[in-house]
Amino acid sequence: MEAILLGSETIQAGTAATRLRILDVLSRLPWDGVSCQHEIPGLTLYRIVECTGPFSTVYEPSLSLIIKGSKRLSVGDERLVYDESCFFLTTIGLPMTGQICEVSKTEPYVAAKLRLDLEVLRRLITNHDLYPTNTSDRERDRGIVVGRATPELFDALWRLISLVDSPNDVPFMANHIQSEILYRLLTGEQGERLRRFALAGTNSNRVAKAVAWLKENYAMPLRVEALAEMANMGVSTLHHHFRAVTAMSPLQFQKHLRLHHARELMLSGSLDAASVALRVGYESPTQFSREYRRMFGHPPLRDVKAILNSEGVTRRGAVG
After folding, report:
1. CA distance 165 to 162
2. Does the structure show a pLDDT above 80 at 202?
3. How far is CA 149 from the centre of its chain?
4. What is the C-alpha to C-alpha distance for residues 188 and 135, in angstroms, rounded to an integer?
5. Which of 6-15, 79-88, 202-211 has the highest average model confidence (pLDDT)?
6. CA-to-CA distance for 14 and 84, rounded, in angstroms?
7. φ, ψ for residue 71 (rounded to 5)?
8. Dist CA 35 CA 137 (whole Å)
9. Dihedrals phi, psi of 188, to nearest 5 degrees
10. Angle at the Cα of 256 (from 90 to 241), degrees rounded to 5?
11. Are the C-beta atoms of residues 138 and 208 closer than 8 Å to each other?
12. What is the pLDDT of residue 141?
């Protein structure tokens, strides 16, 4: 089922002026196609002017804010659409597919993605006594969070991006502004969920450890019992909470990782489909082709050719 998650008109009106100021700063930057180079650590900026096919990637823990436009995302069996009235937060690395909605040279898609520093999150939680208090929503914790992008959040983003005009201030100011952004998230409407992921000892954090192991070892045979032991959970408990966090079972998650990585390897041009199948852990190239087509809609070679013949967005990985 597709969820359309768009914010209220009040929130959009409150952020409109700030988003215009951000767009003014970005208009002066030297863009290299989709992105631009700057000195602000952890921040990636995107500007898309042409529609392309869906992109696939493994998101890293990060905060994404759309400054102009909207985007569709698929995570497991979940679908969502969000725009500049929302923020998108992923607290663990998840394989996703996405597509920019309507875009043109006169109405580009513009977004910012900020890498999450979990150590800074934990320090803020400790220093400001922001420990989780509400346990009623633990069963529904997802590794992805969509929330309202408040004027305060966009104001902090504008000040962070504005540092491109004063690079000498970046070493001192960037860390402080990024900490402010994390503080806004921790104390906002989705703060409880973010705190549970950040802190050790919660089921969300245990699942995050299992996810991290799978990302590093996706090509290895998977024994769910061993994964549950590593996460310090029972097998049934791991299954329950893993699906709650990722919208997938551990085996489905591993398959998504394998197929996303296989697509990237083929796009790099270094390996053919049969060799890629073995590299990512498949024993049967036939099974690989069948599951690849089921996920991406076309057999491996046809899918890769279509992407390579399109503009470069899909080849650049995640778009914030």
Report:
1. 6
2. no
3. 16
4. 16
5. 79-88
6. 11
7. -150, 150
8. 37
9. -90, -170
10. 55
11. no
12. 64
Q: Are 228 and 237 in contact (CB under 8 A)?
A: yes
In the chain, which ranges are continuous DSSP H helix? 9-26, 118-127, 151-161, 170-186, 191-198, 203-216, 224-230, 235-246, 250-267, 273-279, 285-296, 300-309
Q: Which residue do the tokens 């000040």 mark? A: 159
Is pLDDT of 134 > 80? no
Q: Between vectors from CA 8 to CA 176 and to CA 91, what angle results, nearest 5°? A: 45
Mean pLDDT on 147-157: 94
258 token code pair: 């394998």
What pLDDT score was predicted for residue 310? Answer: 67
Sign of CA dihedral 119, 120, 121, 123: positive
State the residue for tokens 């290299």.
Answer: 32
Q: Is the pLDDT of residue 140 over 70?
A: no
Location of structure tokens 């400001």: 128
Task: Describe the strand order of the beta sheet including 2-5 as a list of residue ranges.
Answer: 2-5, 78-83, 70-75, 94-100, 55-59
Termini Cα distance of the chain: 23
| Residue 223, C-beta contacts closer than 8 angstroms, at least 6 positions apart | none
What pLDDT does 105 receive? Answer: 85
More confident residue, 235 or 205: 235
Instruction: Please provide the average confidence, as pLDDT, over all residues in the chain.
Output: 86
Q: How far apart are CA 91 and CA 207, in angstroms?
A: 11
Count CB atoms within 10 A of the CB of residue 74. 18
At 156, list the tokens: 């902090």
CB 127 within 8 A of CB 58: no
- Tell me the pLDDT band of 143, cut-offs 50, 70 and 90: confident
